[in-house]
Amino acid sequence: MTLSATTASAKKVIGIALETTPGTAVAPTYWLRVSKVSAKDETTPLTDETFQGDRAAVHQIVPGTIHSKVSITMPVALDTAGFAFAGILGHYLYNAGTPNVHNFVLDPNNPKTYTITDYSGPVTKVYAGCTFESVKIMGSSDKLVEFEVSLFGQASNTVSTPSPSWTTELPLPTWASIVKVGANSGSAVDATADNWEIEIKADVAPGFTASGTRNATYNKIGTVDASFKFTGICSTPGLSEVSAFAAGTSRYFSVQLVPAAGGSEGALIEILSGTYKDGNIDGGSLKDIVKYELDGITASVPSTLTSLTGYSTPVQVTLNNAVPSGIYA
After folding, report:
1. What backbone phi and psi angles, to 5 degrees, belong to 306?
2. How far is residue 272 CA from its own chain's centroid?
3. Contacts of 273 by beta carbon, 8 Å cutoff, 6+ apart
4. Is the pLDDT of residue 1 over 70?
5. N or C: which end of the chain has fewer CB within 10 A?
6. Phi then psi for 126, rounded to 5 degrees?
7. Mean pLDDT of 69-83
8. Residues contacting residue 75 through CB under 8 Å, at least 6 positions apart
9. DSSP code of 9?
10. Positive or negative torsion for Cα 52, 54, 56, 61
């Protein structure tokens, strides 16, 4: 018996690019370093469940609407991080410099769309018209900072095999990140935090019309909100925040992402007005140390970033890197 040829899943590559025309596929401008990915088409067949003088449940099946769903987990790199922030928040401001400065806040209008390219060896598929519906950025002190992102788009199409290439940008270790929490942006660094996450969710969905196509013809655009949580060694900073939870006071929370080697590149993710909805001090098991756990929601308030104070946003992001204008949004 001759064995069939196989393709190692490790050969999979994922690319991304901003679309000029929503729903029209474009070639990748960057290739993502992903650790986990699911990209697939989703459809619901339409069934004829009528009385026809027998016991059959279904007599006919016809195609229903179709769209795609993409979920990606990946280490955060400063050159590609802007796609997630631009995709979920929408409004983008660029200032050239050394490094270049990219600012992101919530846009009241429609978000941008992107093309995801998925090469898995036997076939390469593109998912056009992709809109970000959730972005979670998270860190654990002994791991890399990671993104978990989710998008939806139009049904996939098959394209020719790409020629991927990657930049030399390194992933970011959580131990190098800087957490600030308190009454305002002038609050002290909380060096006791060991795990943190910020999640931004958009109430968006594919929309369909009677237009002769199974694909989505528009995106349903709804609200955007954010949440955050973190844990740390139970000492003075943590106890102060647990007290703030009990009092229900507004809190500032930020994470600054810093490369292991330092330098001028990095990112600052800020929640300007958060309120804890859950808080706890727990010793865990017999061999654990006592830790605090805090879980919060955010309110949209005017941005404090220069030239963006007219935008109300649950999260604001400043990203410093070498990427030029026009890549993210």
Report:
1. -55, 135
2. 19
3. 250, 251, 252, 298, 299, 300, 301
4. no
5. N
6. -115, 140
7. 98
8. 33, 35, 144, 145, 146, 147, 171, 172
9. G
10. negative
| Per-residue model confidence as pLDDT tens digits over 120-165 | 878 999 999 999 999 999 999 999 999 999 999 999 999 998 889 9
**Torsion on CA atoms 152, 273, 313, 31, rounded to nearest 10:** -50
In the numeric block, which tokens belong to residue 68?
Answer: 């795609």
Q: Does the global pTM surpass 0.90? A: yes
Non-local CB neighbours of 223 within 8 Å, separated by 6+ positions: 202, 203
d(Cα 232, Cα 246) in Å, to the nearest integer?
18
Taking only the tens place, the pLDDT of each residue in 37-75 is 999 999 989 999 999 999 999 999 999 999 999 999 999
How many helical (H) and strand (E) elements, i.e. helices and strands, does the chain have? 2, 21
At 249, which amino acid appears?
T
Q: Which two tokens stand for residue 109?
A: 């209008």
How far, in Å, CA of 250 to CA of 254, rounded? 14
Residue type for 129, please? G
8 Å CB contact between 128 and 153: yes
Pairing of strands 193-207, 266-282: unpaired
